[in-house]
Specification:
The chain is of the alpha/beta class. The chain has 6 helices and 16 strands.
Length: 265
């Protein structure tokens, strides 16, 4: 029944930053994994959002939404006990492997990284987590992840909090100093392209969660197919290992808008 929207009451809302809110819903769990996404329906339109919290103990799922346009603006106007439609989960999730993992999230890319960190730390994986943002006010989930016992490092482009500079610079510095079994990444594609190059240079197995314009989430419409492999990001992705990502020729170069027109990064 995951393909039929469930109309659910919003259980609670957490303001994560001036532009990001996390919406929590009561949820009957099946096989949800970090990295998967849900389709959110505001009764007029529908958009995919990464799952940012998986809590089967309290039967609760969380989805974090960055306000970027009319759809997300409508979500940010909602209150606790308001209704929203959800269907899913969809897509591939992150695989949890190794005993020491570096996780990197840029901006709202921290949403699936937070869910992954929760789950991996529960399984005893030692984690270093980089949460990157343009400025201090937009750093996501630092306090929440600190409670899990992982090592959280913030980076800001303007140097207002934590490491001053891009996440890619801190990643390269850490990889030279530390011994990781794996890296997981989600964020702006330009950042991920640089991290793909770094992971290849240091031969570090890495999983990436990528984003493309999705309409159906069922693998039917073909809107999110990528060149040249034709993989549907909603079904074969959104999470790929680095060697798979290297087969997607458009990665780091361009994506397609709702009309299928190429847009350069």
């Amino acid at each position: 029944m995951k393909h039929f929207p469930q109309v659910l009451k919003i259980k609670r809302i957490v303001e994560e930053s001036p532009t990001v809110k996390t919406f929590y819903f009561p949820w009957k769990f099946t096989d949800e994994t970090p990295g998967q996404f849900l389709m959110l329906w505001n009764f007029q339109d529908e958009k995919p959002m990464s799952i940012s919290s998986i809590d089967p103990v309290n039967d609760e799922v969380g989805v974090s939404v960055k306000m970027v346009g009319p759809f997300t603006q409508s979500l940010h106007k909602l209150h606790e006990n308001d209704l929203l439609g959800l269907r899913g989960p969809y897509g591939t999730g992150f695989q949890i492997a190794g005993s020491r993992v570096l996780a990197v999230g840029g901006g709202i890319g921290m949403a699936p990284i937070a869910a992954f960190t929760d789950e991996a730390s529960k399984r005893g994986v030692e984690m270093d987590v980089i949460t990157a943002a343009t400025t201090k006010k937009e750093i996501l989930f630092q306090e929440r992840l600190n409670t899990t016992g992982v090592n959280v490092m913030a980076t800001t482009d303007d140097g207002s909090h934590g490491f001053c500079g891009f996440a890619t610079e801190l990643v390269e510095k850490l990889i030279k100093q530390e011994d990781y079994d794996m890296m997981v990444v989600c964020g702006p594609e330009i950042m991920m392209k640089k991290l793909l190059d770094i992971s290849n240079q240091y031969q570090l197995p890495t999983q990436f969660s990528i984003e493309r314009y999705m309409k159906c989430a069922l693998g039917i419409c073909g809107q999110c197919c990528v060149d040249d492999v034709g993989w549907r990001i909603c079904v074969e992705g959104p999470v790929f290992w680095g060697d798979q990502l290297m087969m997607i020729s458009e990665f780091g170069k361009y994506h397609r808008d709702s009309s299928g027109i190429r847009k350069q990064f």
